[in-house]
Amino acid sequence: MTGTEHPRAATVGQLxxxxxxxxxxxxxxxxxxxxxxxxxxxxxxxxVGFGDSVLPELETALLAGHDxxxxxxxxxxxxxxxxxxxxxxxxxxxxxxxxxxxDDPLTPVCVRCRGLATEQGDDLVVGWRHRDDRYTEKLATPxxxxxxxxxxxxxxxxxxGRTLGDPETVHYGLVPRANRGLFGLNExxxxxxxxxxxxxxxLEERDIQVRGYSLRLPLDVFVxxxxxxxxxxxxxxxxxxxxxxFGAEIRTHYLTELADEVTLLRQEAHLVATVDDHLLEVLAxxxxxxxxxxxxxxxxxxxxxxxxxxxxxxxxxxxxRAARAGEAQAVARVxxxxxxxxxxxxxxxxxxGEEGREAAVLDHLLKLATAATFRDRLSGLDLSGFTEVFAxxxxxxxxxxxxxxxxxxxxxxxxxxxKVLDRLGYAEAPTPGQVAAAVEFTLEGLHLTRxxxxxxxxxxxxxxxx
Length: 466
Known about the structure:
The chain is of the alpha/beta class. The protein contains 20 helices and 14 strands. It is elongated.
């Protein structure tokens, strides 16, 4: 059942009249994915940089009807991919009204619903679930129990007079409650090995067993799990029999294209000030250099959350300047980057030999990223108008609390500034804050390429002649 309006069928009889037919979750996903592929639509909105690598493997696994494990370092978008799969379900799905495990009205499996179906026939009341409600996610932790995942005896129901042998005394866990939907298990290796055994039947026989009850409850559930590589996640592992029961293991990766990194930042970062693309490129290059540096423990990886937090921090620094200096518009400048870097040290792990040098390592790599972005953005431009200002003895003083108009007043009119603005995407009516951002970026690039000097005095940055 698809469409934006809520379906009208209220009973099994009306459902049959509408032509409803039962199909499994995996059949739903397969059919809806094929529709999107044939129509040329994006089947996984919001997933960036995986188009030629992860997504083809993912599409193949989904079409094959495989439960799957997403394997990769932290911050590679595994959970985002897992949650995006919900969009491949039908928008609305009928259930037996009041059923704890969301039984199909035409083929109920639990004792209660089978009894109701026999008793009421076509008058059995039908409820409707939106696809967003058909996704259940659990973060695996060492204290997770079989009862949490599969189920256990409900003492309240026993106290109400039911006998222990009555299947209706069972309190269902998360997996059966995810019946006819998606069950996502984050950080699967953190689940105790004896608890992982409880998933064997779910993935292979598609049923559950609770506390020795003579209860076979066939489930229709699509299971997706995430995991870090075993060589890094020393807290646990996925036991071999469980790995064998997953149909596919798909390896994720960090983004390889700079443009994808910037797109991801625009999509995910909540920026409280204007942070233009040249600064986002600096942050993207900075993160990529961290992922390649011998000073960083590459087994732990450098999460995309590092870059997102950096962009948000830079925006926060710009907003602070606007508030303290009385600027109408908050625009980030390259001088905001070093202020934020010390707050990010806790997000990465350094090699043992780098103790005490963490800040120096990050500062060096940030300078390299800034210089690379400067060369990429402004190469070939005549910047002599800027250097001549300093050759004649001029200086420009800036800092995290220096207003944009004060910065521009010190520099005066500079030949070639309009071309710099054009290269940085400020061609149409840039604000004073954006002009100041372009100027400061140019001055920092000239310093890093050893064409002008820079020194720090009492929290201020002073650019001058070599």
